[in-house]
Amino acid sequence: MKVAVVGATGMVGEVMLKVLAERNFPVTELIPVASERSVGKTVTYKGTDYKVVGLETAVSMRPDIALFSAGGDTSLEWAPKFAEAGTTVVDNSSAWRMDPSKKLVVPEINANELTKDDKIIANPNCSTIQLVMALAPLHKKYNMKRVVVSTYQSVSGTGIKAVKQLENEIAGVEGEMAYPYPIGRNALPHCDVFLENGYTKEEMKLAKEPQKILNDSSFSVSATAVRIPTAGGHSESVNVQFENDFDLADIRKILSETPGVVVQDNTETNSYPMPIYAHDKDEVFVGRIRRDESQANTLNMWIVADNLRKGAATNTIQIAEYLIENKLV
User: Fold this and answer.
1) CATH number for the domain whose boundaries are 2-124+312-325
2) What angle do CA 274, 279, 285 make, to 5 degrees?
3) How many angstroms separate the CA atoms of 123 and 107, rounded?
4) CATH number for the domain formed by residue range(s) 127-307
C-alpha cells in the first residue's frame, strides 16, 4: 500500500503521519509530498526519515492512496492528476466538499456510500465533523428542524502562523500577524473570509455541509463562528429543534452508544467537555445536555473535539481505512 501524504510538512500533515503510525495503517511505502520550497526536507515516520518530494514526482510514483492537506488551490489542481494516475485521493481542503459529483464523508455516518469509482473523496470541515457526529444519531430518532450553532475555534484551525501569533502575544513578542487584531485575551467573530450575505465561509460550511453528509435538506443550520485564544480544540454551543419531543435520558443513551462519541455530562462533579481534555484524542465529546426551556422539542448541547485529529487527520485516515477494508482501492 503506497501512501502519499500531500502537505506532509504542514500542521495537519504532521498529525496525519502521527495518526497513521498510531493506527498501524498498512503503509508499505510512504511518500511525503509538499511544495517545491520543502522538497528535500525530511519527515520522520515510525522512526525512519523520509525525503519530501514534489507533486509531479509523487504523481509519477502512482500511490494507491493520497491523503491531501495542502490547501484548496493545490487540491483543485493536483487531485485530478493523482486520480487520473489511478490514485484514490482523500482531500482535507474545502475544494471538493460541495461538488455534487464528490462524496463528503464522515465514516461513522456515510462511508457506506463510497464505491471504487470515487477517486476524489472530500473530508468535511473540522467544525462540521464534530457537529454531525453528535447530530446524526439524534436526527435519526427525533428529526431535526433547525440547528443554531456558535463555535469557539482554536487558532490551530488557521494554521501555524496563527499559533505563532498567539505564542508571541503570550510571550510579549512582536511578530507576524495571522489575524487583523490580537487574538490573546480576545475573541474574533471572524473565521475565514466574509461573504456577500454577511456570513463567513466557515459559517456557510457549517450551514451546508451537514445537509450533504446526511443527504437531507429538511433541516436548516444557522452558524456564528468565533476564533478564541486556545492552541487546539474546537468547541460548539448547539441548539437543536426537533419535530418530535425527546427524553433527556434517551438523548444521553443514544449519544453514549454512538461510536466515536463520548458523553461528559455531570454538573455535580463539574464534568463537561473542554479543549484541554480533547487534546490529542479522536473522540467527539458532548456535554451540558439540557432542554431548552424557552421552546418546545429543543435541546442544548456543548460539543468539543480536537480539530487537527477527528476534525482533520483522523477522519481522513478513517476514510482510507474504510476503503482498504472494503477493497475499494
Assistant:
1) 3.40.50.720
2) 50
3) 10
4) 3.30.360.10
For the segment 183-215, what is each residue's pLDDT rounded down to a tens digit? 999 999 999 999 999 999 999 999 999 999 999
| pLDDT tens digits for range 58-96 | 999 999 999 999 999 999 999 999 999 999 999 999 999
pTM summary value: 0.97
Domain residue spans of the chain = 2-124+312-325, 127-307
Q: Which residue among 139, 190, 191, 234 is the active-site one?
A: 234
> Which residues, other chains included, contact 284 with Cβ-Cβ below 8 Å and sequence gap of 6+?
129, 130, 133, 134, 260, 261, 262, 303, 304, 305, 310
191 labelled catalytic = no
Cell 491531501 belongs to 68
Let me know if 190 is a catalytic residue: no
Q: Which of 126, 139, 191, 279 is catalytic?
A: 126
